[in-house]
Amino acid sequence: MRIWSVYSLYHYLSHQGDSVVAFIFSCLVPASIIFLVLQKPWKGRPLPNSQIIPTVINGGIMALYFILWGKGLLSCGPLIALLAEYAGAVLGVLSAALYGRQVHIWKKVGGLIAMLACYYLLSKGWATRTNSPFYSFGKEPLMQAKQSLGFKEMAVPISAGILSALRRVIARRVSLKNQLKRRLHAICIASATCFLFPLAMWDTILGSTSDSIVKFQLPSWAYLSTISFGIIFVFYADNIAEERLHLVFSSPRHLMISGGSIILMEILYQMDFSLIGFVICSLILGFGIFEATSLGRSRRGPLESQDASEEAFQNQLQMSSLPS
């Protein structure tokens, strides 16, 4: 459902021409209100400043992530924007280079090279029918035809993916319990909304005409699905998947599930899509993620699996001690 909301958002913004920052801000406002009403972070045990301050800073990182992700969605399309979210696995390479043992560094560097190769092939259009080197089956007309992308276009969604992983690292480090995680996430969403407010107003007033502001239709499916599935429900779904199913975000299994949903959406929306090229790029990316997050797999049981790329990096963050 979250991937469906991404495709509906892409088609809405590409056809309506609304401001990406203003649209995301308008989605964060009701989402932050819903989180605050549900979690009530002002009730219960008072939160210390050692948890509130990093959470507010994390909200700024989230705001920057949403800006880069929205820009990357419009410039690169939903397929690349979704696959670029797995670029956060490079944190595992960084942690190994700074703090890891020599035996694990080369495996992580190999995983990084595989991930870069995948994104390079995606930028060259291997996942699109018009630019894929493989034979194209099917002659049905396309709704969207994509051109090859450059380094600047690809750097935007990849940077958003790294920021998203860094945001999850900080959230895990600050929140020790599940209930505390929900309360702090409500503060984080509200903080991101406050950070986006001046940028959204600036972009709306200076970057949009009066006619486009009038045409800004909030009660659309793209708007409602982004709030419901793209911001609210995805947070609870990720927590359930990680805590009960032991399915973390930056993992090959998660990529496999997302890849199946992406294939379905690409076919339904009749996008410029090459199945063979997408499968090859996904396999390369999955191999890169597997190698980049391979630290400590042999020491963990199936019930103790965590996202190694984020966990190894978060353990090195210098923060004050937190209450148990």
Automatic annotation (TrEMBL):
Localization per record: Membrane
Residue stretches spanning the membrane: 20-38, 50-68, 80-98, 105-122, 154-171, 183-201, 221-241, 253-269, 275-295
Superkingdom as given in the UniProt entry: Eukaryota
SUPFAM superfamilies the record matches: Multidrug resistance efflux transporter EmrE
Bilayer topology annotation: Multi-pass membrane protein
InterPro entries to which the protein is assigned, alphabetical: EmrE-like (IPR037185)
Keywords: Membrane, Transmembrane, Transmembrane helix
Protein name, UniProt field: Zinc transporter 5
Organism: Musa troglodytarum (fe'i banana)
